Amino acid sequence: MKRLIQGDAIDVMQTLPANSFDAVITDPPYSSGARKEGQKGLRNKMKRATEDADWFSCDAMTTNGFTWLMRECAREWRRVLKPGGHLLCFIDWRMYPALSAVIESVDLRHVGMLVWDKTYFGMGACFRNQHELILHFSKGPPSAPQRRDMGNVIQCKPIRQGEHPTQKPIDLMHKLVSVVVPKGGHVLDSFAGSGSTGDACDLHGCDFTGIEIESRYFEEPKEAHEADAAFWTKRLG
């Protein structure tokens, strides 16, 4: 079963039943588009300082705004997770310390950190960026993994010119799902974006609930995304 809900992540999660998800796997806005705090939130609001039709909202909040949003989300993540349930949350190096502390503050257990190796580098100052981070937490002692052949550095090429500016590869999301979610389990993605987590759940054989606030990403995937999903269905099936 795949369920998609359009709305604010916190508002929607507050309507979901407690202890109902085996995992939360999500990719929130990092709010780290500026290297200096003063370059964020120039309109004294939590949302993006400049209008950019090609990007998405809430990606240039101040650190205070980001911390508030993520703590409210983390409170709901803890509530809706089953005991032993897993949280996997994408983030970058700038906001990793803030997000890690916020999640820990709601009494979720820090299990570890994963590195997504994109296999080639992009922009950067001295050492050019080649990775993103994935925080791993659990509600109490973590439930046993479904497989033990996956390292904490996962190599996977990123999506270029996808349906969403930060669209994650289905291959990457399937690897994450396959480790922490049992067959027939239930996954929540509170920042669903283009829906790659849901496609990974389809491949794994588990239920999915996705929340997305922006209508342009909530709509059905276009042909390119459908073709990508079909490719991985064939390759992984």
Secondary-structure map:
Blueprint: E1 2-6, H1 9-13, E2 21-26, H2 63-80, E3 81-91, H3 96-104, E4 109-117, E5 131-138, E6 153-155, H4 170-180, E7 186-189, H5 196-204, E8 207-212, H6 215-218, H7 223-236
Structural class: alpha/beta
**Ranges with pLDDT <50 over ≥5 residues?**
34-56, 221-229
Give the integer mean of the pLDDT values. 84
The first-to-last residue Cα distance is 18 Å
Task: Describe the protein in words.
With 237 residues, the protein is an alpha/beta fold. The chain has a single domain, classed as Vaccinia Virus protein VP39 (Rossmann fold, 3-Layer(aba) Sandwich). It has 7 helices and 8 strands. An 8-stranded mixed β-sheet has the order 1-8-7-2-3-5-4-6, with helices on both faces. Helix 2 crosses helix 3 and helix 4 packs across helix 5. The two termini are 18 Å apart. About 14% of the residues have low confidence.
